[in-house]
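Re: that chain you flagged

S.,

Sorry for the slow reply, it's been a week of failed gels. I finally had a moment to sit down with the sequence you sent. For the record, here it is as I used it:
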Amino acid sequence: MNSRNQSGNVKARIVSISSDGGATWDTTYFDETLIDPVNQGSILNIGTKKALKKTIMILQLIPIW
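Prediction finished late last night. Pasting the structure tokens below so you have them in one place:
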């Protein structure tokens, strides 16, 4: 899961990983490569599957001031 940090003390998105579909969370951390100005943002995941290979593109839309 990917979410914003509402407190604003770290300007990065929060990433949480679950191995059981979200019933519990294995790890949660700030991803410093996903800069976030702590406002309404969107992350779009566009993926395709061919046989067992998967290509994923992640776009993060944030305002630039």
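What I noticed first: Residues 4 and 13 are 5 Å apart (CA to CA).

Talk soon,
D.
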